[in-house]
Design goal:
about 95% helix, nucleus, Heat shock factor-binding protein 1, transcription corepressor activity, about 70 residues, coiled coil
């Protein structure tokens, strides 16, 4: 009977170790996703700033107005 109880304890220990590893990996993945989100936000802001400096906003607005004009 001791072997059965010891086996159960080993299984519980193994499951706890696996749960801890999964939690650690999950935390790392979430951290990396948050970091990527911040980088993407920064990149979008930099692109918007560059487009503003280059005057691209006016070019983007023109096709929309042209489409509206074609419908009239």
């Amino acid at each position: 009977m001791q072997n059965g109880g010891g086996g159960l304890l080993q299984v519980q220990t193994l499951l706890q170790q696996m749960q801890d590893k999964f939690q650690t990996m999950s935390d790392q993945i979430i951290g990396r996703i948050d970091e990527m989100s911040t980088r993407i936000d920064d990149l979008e802001k930099n692109i918007a700033d560059l487009m503003t400096q280059a005057g691209v906003e006016e070019i983007e607005a023109t096709p929309e107005k042209a489409k509206e004009g074609q419908g009239s």
